[in-house]
Fold each of these.
Amino acid sequence: MSDSSGNQSREWNYHPDLPLQDPSIFKWPPSPGFLARWFARNWLTLSERVIMVILAVIAWLTLYPSLETAQSFAFGWIFQTWAVNMALMIVIAGALHWYFYIHKGQGQELKFDRRDQAKGNRLWNFANQVHDNMFWSLGSGVAQLTAFQVVTMWLMANDYVPVMTLTSNPVWFVLALILLPIWSAFHFYWVHRLLHVPFLYKKVHSLHHRNVNIGPWSGFSMHPVEHLFYLSSLCIHWVVISHPVHLIFHVIYLGPGAAMTHTGYEDLLIKDKRRLALGTFYHQLHHRYYECNYGNQEMPCDRWFGTFHNGSEEATATTRARKKKMHA
């Protein structure tokens, strides 16, 4: 049942058709038609990923320091990298928050949760959910994102890790861009499962999970230990040949990209037409029910390992039983 049918569930302001289907590319036997549609939807339209690739190329050419500059650690280029990351985070998360939650450009259309962002609640630093989320995102988040990027740039600049040029292997250049989100999804699932071990959940991950009702600033709002675990996905560039554009795309995908996937809305509407996919109900279910949907739909680890919530009442009952057992 979805909002488009004129019906609303008791739990949600909006949800897509339920139960959730399986959009993963890891189906057996493979379906060439399905794979072609998946590729076209993600890479042959102005999708979230294509926008991030375009932004990565522009940032590599005009904003970030060159690899030659990064051959030795120096305050200037490190500060420049931090400043660019800070600006990208503020502009992307800030613009999304302004449009959806201040300007209310879409009202409640395609918004999962009826509620607005919390204010006047001592659960949050500054008694304000958005200000609390900004504190963690722009503080620990941007600092650690920059640290991983700086170390990787230094390794690349000094030939300690394999670096490619665009002309040396154009096929791998394109293929690596397609595979990086899939790698990130695989890495995220297992790091996320680890963070739900009761001790780590209580001491670390619970800070992020205060955001039951998510917004753009929620995506990158984490405990510093969680930032360390989450951003270790970037270490793939230490062992697999890549180009600086791949690194920057990965940085944007993990940092500002988290604001895009946590808007709390399924799509951006322009003239009543869905123009850009943003948040997913799949991950919204995780923020509501905790012990489910640790990964994303593209990498079907939740389906493989029995932690999938398809949006049904039966799945909610199963998830609550698992949570009770884990935290007993």
Amino acid sequence: MFKFIVRRLLLSVVIFFFAMFLIYTLIYNLPSSYVETTARELAAASSKMGGKTYKQWLDQLNEQYGMNKGVVRGYFTWLGSAVKGEFGTSWKWNMPCTEKFSSCIWNSFFLGLISFIFEIIIAIPLGVLAARKQYSITDYTVTCVSLIGISLPTFFVATLLKLIFAVKLRWFDISGMHSRNYIAENATQLETILDIAKHFVLPAITLIVISIGGLMRYTRTNMLEVLNADYIRTARAKGLPESKVIGYHAFRNTLIPVVTILGGSLPGLFSGALITETLFAIDGIGYASYYSMVGGDIPFTMFYLSLMSVLTLLGNLISDILYAVVDPRVRVN
């Protein structure tokens, strides 16, 4: 197992190298020069104080991010700084990329964690129930709900929830992380937490609705496969109670592939929900990355895409390890 992990880590480094090279090449060849725009804005802001000229800012930014050295040399310039943890200053947020990440990551993490927990609580039991009652009304209902969840786009679910609960019922605000009458100086820590939690309800429901469908279908399919296995028929022939057959024999083996899927989802808690956070104006890493991309913030965009690449590779590694851990029949050669 140790040798397997080492090999996978080395392979992940190679994949990361080429993935980021592809991303850097795409950003390098953007049709409009965001570097020139940023240099012009910085020169205008500093002109009143006798600061650098547009040409000086342009040269500094091009040198800092390797935009004046060609794709290959420029990429190695960026990579050398990234390896040292130096991703530069965000043009959009006017602070170091890592500092902006630290200030907003926990909003994304808690939102993702809440959605992740409810996804497991809802999807897995319903998937098992649908498999146990195959071709019944329950099965058709669960299948219909899962297909709806898979098919609906995020923006539609978010807009529908806003219309019902924010506009019609007025139970929640349309967007943001604080209420209209919230005053930070007068609010206690508990009031602040409760106010933020209230604004997390609709985004969390959105994430749950669009994510439970796939896990529900996956659980149902695996449960049906297990229920048709020979050892399940043997367990029933021995006279074991149905609850023990399902809960002990079938469910444990159903969880083997499900656990690997969930293990691969764990790093996603730190990548943020770009569309959902943007629609509800939740100050998370997804929200920050969206407006950075739209505004041509090359430093933060490169930082975010680097983070996404690392989390994706880490998720795949966790899935492989968990599959070998939970299933004793699997051995790594």
Amino acid sequence: MGGMNKEPEFIDNSAALARPEAFVSADVDVARVLESWRLSLYSFEWLLPDGSLKFAADLPEGEQAKRRAVEEALERGEALEKPVLGLGLQETIEIGSGRAVFLTLAAKGAQVLPAHILKSQMDDFKAFIAQV
């Protein structure tokens, strides 16, 4: 994972484990995902209007706590759940379960991250899959 000192370990997300037949795991291009997610109704909590990630201190209080929890898990060397990505109503990426994991690692310089994607949406995700 480019830009990070220590590679975190990832485990399957509990949301994907509940429906394993519906999801596939894939490595996604963080910059491309953020570019699309920028148009999400929920991106304002983590992104500035120009699409760059906010500093931790600028996040809403609840999101600061989520980011701190991810950072603390990283410091302890704990495995992180893979984020779940999907397409929203506006055909933009939505980050479901694991949003704080994805965005905290993005803020720390991750260029590629593993994620769960609905099998039924894989064709629409081809542009977001990392070319490793």
Amino acid sequence: MLNAHPKQIALDVLTVCKKHQIPVIMNESWGGIECPEKLPRWAFKIKNIPFHFLFPYLGCVIHHGGSGTTHTALIHKKPQAIIPHIADQFFWNRQIQKKEVGISGFKIKKWSLKKFEDLVCVLREFKFKE
């Protein structure tokens, strides 16, 4: 997904995860994030992996809000937050909160380090409704 600051977003994600001691996997495949070449030991970047292989091992998922990613997180009962970019992603953002399977995120155009950190902190405490 396109955003105006792909490198800054990656650095913000790393900053928040370091501060809160959260291991992280960042997906670069759709162009929304550009990770630094060298990452800390607790941070990983991927480009292509089927999410149904990956998601069982995650504590939660923060993503762009595509229907496939949203659905895969639901199948694996992972709390999720969506940072919508375009189209139906705004719909899925509302639905995960309404169905109590995640928390509402914020538009990518409203990105800030503080907003992301606040989102991460709330999502870590979220309990998935079964």
